[in-house]
Amino acid sequence: MLLAAAGIVSHRAGCDLRQEIIHRAAAFPRFLLYVVQVLSFLSVIAVPVAVAVERLVKRETVQVVDAVGASTLAYLAAFGVNIATSHYQDSDVAQAIGGTTPMQVQLAVGVAAVTILGFSRSQYRSLFLSAAALSGLAVVLLGQDSVTGVLLSALLGRIVGRAWLSVRGVLDTRPGIGRILAELDHVGFRAHPGSVRVLEPGVDGARRFLVTVAGDGRRQALDLAVLDQSQRAAYLTSRLWQWIRLRGPVRRRSFFSLRRTVESEVLMSMAVEAAGIRTPRLRTARQVDQDTALLAYDHLDAPRVADLPDRAWTPGLHSGIWALWQHLRCRQLAHRELTTDHLRLDPSGRLWLTDVGYGEITAEDLLCRLDGAELLVSLALRVGPARATEEAVDALGAATVASLLPLMQPILFSEGTAKALRRHRAAGDRADIVGSIRDRIIALHPEADVQPVSLERVRPRTVLSIVGGTIAFYLLATQLTGFQVPELNTWQAWGWVVGAAVASAATYVAAAFNLLGCVKERVPVGTTVLAQVAAAFAGLVAPASVGGLAVNTRFLQRTGIPVARAVTAVGVSQVIGFACYLLLLLVFSAFAGNHRKQSGGLSAITPSATVTGVIIALAVIALLIAAIPRLRTLVVSRVKPLVTDIGPEFLQVARTPRKLAQAFGGALGLPMAASVCLWASVNAVSGSDVNLAAMGVAYLLAKAVGSLVPTPGGVGGVEAVLTAGLTAAGVPSAVAATSVIVFRLLTWWLPVIPGWFAFTAMQRRGAL
Predict the structure, then answer these.
(1) What is the Cα–Cα distance from 558 to 555, expressed in whole angstroms?
(2) 3-state SS, residue 712
(3) Is the whole model's pTM more than 0.90, yes or no?
(4) Among 191, 304, 570, 676, fewest CB within 10 Å belongs to which?
(5) What is the tens place of the pLDDT at every residue in 160-213?
(6) What is the 3-state secondary structure (H, E, C) of 175-236?
(7) For residue 351, what is the enclosing H or E element?
(8) Nearest to 262 by CA among 235, 237, 222, 228
(9) What's the rounded Cα separation, in Å, for the pair 554 and 767?
(10) Angle, nearest 10°, between helix axes 657-686 and 629-654?
């Protein structure tokens, strides 16, 4: 009896020990989240403190005082919101923004502080943003707050900081002339502050000074250009609008990053000088602080060509100007603002080119011709359209001048030329300069191509995409409002999440094999998979699968495959993918229809309702096309080029069993892996088994809708169809919505991050 009792006790103790081990193992992920939350909290507070200490060491006490005031105000605002929501915790507003304590006080305080202080080092910026993101993620996963509450906390801190600056006034923290002269002294150019002369601001508001320095045993004059990130921000709106509105090579690059701007200006100055074109020599380029850079050029004491008197405008001057443009074009150098304001004529009668900083090296011929078109308009504003065109034809020939005609579009010109054209019209002269040049060129060269080059990005389809993207963002924000991540406190749930992530990764491998099977040449498998990951980032800025098609086509071109064959190979992969899509839809529908609702199947989508309906609809459409001659002609005209181009390439693939297996295997594997990912996401959230075939039908239908929605990745439409499909499959609506968000995070939003790294890496290596 005693032995039996001891055995029972030991058995119970063993069971209790096992239960304790399982409980502690399930709680281990939450323990890690608590650790991350504490470390992130310390970093969010420590970074502003470190920046404030550095400001105090530099005796910038006013900013530190402002930061303390703004942080105190942000603390009071966040604390007040938490008190208000605690009193009205049952209200819809309180629940929507996170419950009783929606505001993360430390996050609001930290954001308000760094808004005032700024970041003196890029490392501080990276550390703060990473800590803020990890802190927000931790509190959401722990169920302490919602996504909306975290975002509102950061927004509150930002608003308080900006409001404080608006009331107190923004301090000019840009380096003064003393600091700038000290930087010149470091490179051996000594200048007295009394010799400094302030010049008119340069491009993008760059401060410009004329200073006399002593260096290399002699005195000389230097033109200083001081680029400030804060001043450039004032011109960001117009630059960004032009960058969005235009497409192709005419869009200006490197205006977001100060460092890239300086590098571009230095390279362009060296390239122009190496080409034998007279330009002021760049003496030094230095970084003054994190947001300021200095460039020093030799001062050129010569008048601008635009300011020359009428008697100086001789045929020889016109000939010299066009000879300089031809020299730039031969060297593939584009000035991007080639006007008479940026040309100088020295006392010896030699032309000099200035302000080359925003030009481009190894420029496309389109940009060089755009320089020529703008130069012709600039000359016409000075001497008249008739004389400017005739002098250009005498110097270049009628055919060369006619090649500038498609680029005679004011939208493509620099801001200075556009303003000059507007002033010309406002002065009472109703003559259209650009139209007069066009008429004159056509009269001199009737065979000229008058069709303008299409370089505008804003078109009806683009507007539709923007509107659709806005609606999709609203729908996504509505889904995220009040969203609480389910507690994954069991190893089984985490196993489903890992399985869904693996299935999501498998889709890129399947897409790579689908593409490899449609290419006769040997292409590296690893690089092809990397290209599919890069396409995840490209899809973020393009509707539906347009980004992926462009990336794959460009990737095949860079591997040495001709353009026509690369386009055809991508087309073959799409045709095979569509055929496999229809096949899987029929198979999944059949299996889902046989699985009834009480066993977790899809009762609303059955072969009798969906598959039969699709077949009947296709048959009716085919009969209508065959019966109506106009429709028949339209379809034949669209399908014939497809068969002519893709048919031979498909036959080449069919002759190689290995390629055929790769193409169809990848095309079948991609939707299969995505369906498994959706299935695992639902199981991770609900904890119960659901029908895989039903998930496949829901995914394939959502993919079809996503290809029709003019938003990146079909955002908005895909979520709606997936939620409806899961609900029809018997999944509760709340679980369906959460599962869809988890699925889209794993297959769309999170892959954008490695996609960006893959995209930039492949571009750097010349693979894209």
Answers:
(1) 5
(2) strand
(3) no
(4) 304
(5) 888 887 776 555 566 778 888 888 888 888 887 778 888 887 766 788 899 998
(6) CCHHHHHHHHHHCCCEECHHHCEECCCCHHHCEEEEEEEEECCEEEEEEEEEEEHHHHHCCH
(7) strand 351-353
(8) 228
(9) 8
(10) 100
